[in-house]
């Protein structure tokens, strides 16, 4: 790993830590009155999720820029010039290390084995990108999934601030979260894997060596399994919200019928 990448990893680790401990409390207490009334455990997670949103926006938008404008990476997905991709991956590695430390020090309130597995799988694969500069297209493509993170965090912010689930902002964010999560984590699986399979048997693939090949494929499988599990949970939550909204509408339209049903049940 080159000095530049190590510097970016360390710098992002420290930067995200400062954002968590200094910038987030100042920003949140200024613009969100309910922030100061939260218990300490919720304050910790609030700051963590704000950092998560900032990281997701940085690397997600940088990822789109590379996909749209970095011709060398798109032309050679295995061995293309990895400069910009390594920068984006280094930022993410710094964030993942910061988040693992945060989870470890607050495990009783924030510990999540799924997140630990996700972070370790990502660091395992990204280590090859930073150390050898391989698979720049595929490493960058995986980061597009971060674009769903701000919606997931916003859902938690609404919940902890006790917004009603029927609130239009909550419903709109929930629907957007489900759609974006599906688009950037599930819908992209077939084209991603089609491009992966297209490299099998090529000279570029063989040059990777068994270590990089195993790290690449196994980490992608693990991440896609986790994304599928999370998508199922999100879809189930959206279904419950939609059914709840339908039930409330039914009560409003026909209160007498609803009362009849309740009396019959009693």
UniProtKB/TrEMBL annotation:
<feature type="transmembrane region" description="Helical">
    <location>
        <begin position="169"/>
        <end position="188"/>
    </location>
</feature>
<keyword id="KW-0812">Transmembrane</keyword>
<dbReference type="Pfam" id="PF03798">
    <property type="entry name" value="TRAM_LAG1_CLN8"/>
</dbReference>
<feature type="transmembrane region" description="Helical">
    <location>
        <begin position="87"/>
        <end position="105"/>
    </location>
</feature>
<feature type="domain" description="TLC">
    <location>
        <begin position="41"/>
        <end position="243"/>
    </location>
</feature>
<keyword id="KW-0472">Membrane</keyword>
<dbReference type="GO" id="GO:0055088">
    <property type="term" value="P:lipid homeostasis"/>
</dbReference>
<feature type="transmembrane region" description="Helical">
    <location>
        <begin position="6"/>
        <end position="27"/>
    </location>
</feature>
<keyword id="KW-1133">Transmembrane helix</keyword>
<dbReference type="GO" id="GO:0005783">
    <property type="term" value="C:endoplasmic reticulum"/>
</dbReference>
<dbReference type="InterPro" id="IPR006634">
    <property type="entry name" value="TLC-dom"/>
</dbReference>
<feature type="transmembrane region" description="Helical">
    <location>
        <begin position="48"/>
        <end position="67"/>
    </location>
</feature>
<protein>
    <recommendedName>
        <fullName>TLC domain-containing protein</fullName>
    </recommendedName>
</protein>
<dbReference type="InterPro" id="IPR050846">
    <property type="entry name" value="TLCD"/>
</dbReference>
<feature type="transmembrane region" description="Helical">
    <location>
        <begin position="208"/>
        <end position="232"/>
    </location>
</feature>
<dbReference type="GO" id="GO:0016020">
    <property type="term" value="C:membrane"/>
</dbReference>
């Amino acid at each position: 790993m080159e000095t530049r990448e190590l510097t970016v990893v360390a710098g992002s680790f420290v930067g995200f830590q400062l954002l968590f401990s200094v910038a987030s409390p100042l920003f949140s207490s200024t613009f969100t009155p309910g922030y100061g009334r939260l218990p300490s455990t919720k304050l910790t997670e609030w700051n963590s999720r704000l950092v998560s949103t900032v990281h997701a926006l940085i690397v997600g938008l940088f990822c789109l820029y590379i996909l749209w404008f970095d011709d060398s990476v798109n032309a050679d997905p295995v061995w293309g010039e990895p400069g910009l991709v390594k920068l984006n991956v280094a930022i993410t590695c710094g964030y993942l290390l910061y988040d693992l430390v945060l989870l470890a020090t607050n495990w009783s309130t924030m510990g999540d084995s799924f997140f630990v597995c996700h972070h370790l799988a990502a660091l395992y694969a990204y280590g090859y990108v930073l150390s050898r500069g391989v698979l720049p297209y595929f490493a960058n493509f995986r980061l597009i999934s971060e674009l769903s993170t701000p919606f997931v965090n916003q859902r938690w912010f609404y919940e902890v601030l006790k917004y009603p689930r029927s609130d239009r902002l909550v419903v709109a964010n929930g629907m957007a979260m489900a759609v974006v999560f599906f688009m950037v984590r599930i819908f992209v699986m077939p084209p991603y894997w089609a491009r992966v399979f297209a490299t099998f048997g090529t000279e570029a693939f063989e040059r990777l060596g068994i270590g990089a090949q195993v790290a690449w494929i196994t980490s992608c499988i693990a991440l896609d399994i986790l994304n599928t599990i999370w998508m199922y949970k999100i879809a189930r939550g959206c279904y419950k919200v939609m059914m709840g909204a339908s039930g409330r509408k039914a009560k409003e339209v026909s209160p007498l019928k609803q009362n009849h049903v309740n009396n019959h049940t009693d």
